[in-house]
Amino acid sequence: xxxxxxxxxxxxxxxxxxxxxxxxxKERQMxxxxxxxxxxxxxxxxxxxxxxxxxxxxxxxxxxTSELQQLRENWQVEVRSAFWRKWxxxxxxxxxxxxxxMLGMILWPISEFSARGIASAxxxxxxxxxLTFPVVIGFASLLLASGIWFDxxxxxxxxxxxxxxxxxxxxxxxxRRRGY
Length: 180
What we know:
Shape: elongated
Strand content: 5-15%
Helix content: over 70%
Number of helices: 5
Largest sheet: 2 strands, antiparallel
Distance between the termini: 85 Å
């Protein structure tokens, strides 16, 4: 009898909870959590979860001509900006600066040779000749690291340019079929 009594008590609690809800015509959901040895939930009423369908992405074929022309202009702007990012970026500036510095390192001793004579410059044993090898190795390693970094940036930008040009070509085909 205690099981029936507990069910009646639960039913009375549910009824009083339902009566306390506002009667405004909106759907409500009530969840009852059962403790003890009987873990779980009891859901009363209709529990239907409807997710709206995902919004469909418009294909270029579905767009108007003016939308396609605007989209093509946007892709062309992206291609131009990717081209500039491809050639004018931090690693390319580092490579350029290192090449200018290396050119200066090559031309400076030549100017000394011509001013003093090649024989006296080669026969003179000073400390700058000792530091030449580590400096050249340092410049070469910096140039190599910057070149690798530049190549990675260039490959990414080339891929962006290629993908954007494919989109532009697709739009051009659609516009040609429409007679524009």
